[in-house]
Amino acid sequence: MEFEVTHPFHPWRGRRFVAATRKHNWGEERVMYFDDEGRLRSLLLSWTDLHQSDVRIEVAAGRACLRADDLSILAAVVDELKSRGASRRRGVK
After folding, report:
1. Cα–Cα distance between 59 and 50 in angstroms, integer?
2. Residues 11 and 42 reside in one and the same domain
3. How far is CA 47 from CA 12, 25, 33, 55, in A?
4. Which of 8, 10, 40, 71 has the least CB density, counted as fewest CB within 10 Å?
5. What is the DSSP letter of 51?
6. What is the pTM of this model?
7. Same domain, yes or no: 11 and 48
8. Residue 59 Cα to chain centre, angstroms
9. How remote is the C-alpha of 49 from its chain's centroid?
10. Do 75 and 33 reside in the same domain of the chain?
11. What integer is the mean pLDDT of 45-69?
12. How far apart are alpha carbons 58 and 42 in whole angstroms?
């Protein structure tokens, strides 16, 4: 399977390589490949055309920094913190 480097600032942008494997390394998805000298290298999957983009991010088109699910979780945390604060204030005269 071939892939292309798509990151706009990577010096190899537009070059194609043969993928050796895909792995989850250093907390991120990476594609492993052999360079021109035969050394095993890796790139972030998101820097290649193998990356499947998040539809929600594309639809937001830079207008939203959080997803609806994230906002729901944040609202629940804020409500919990408010209720804890209110109960503490009720106990103090």
Report:
1. 20
2. yes
3. 10, 15, 13, 17
4. 8
5. P
6. 0.56
7. yes
8. 16
9. 15
10. no
11. 77
12. 26
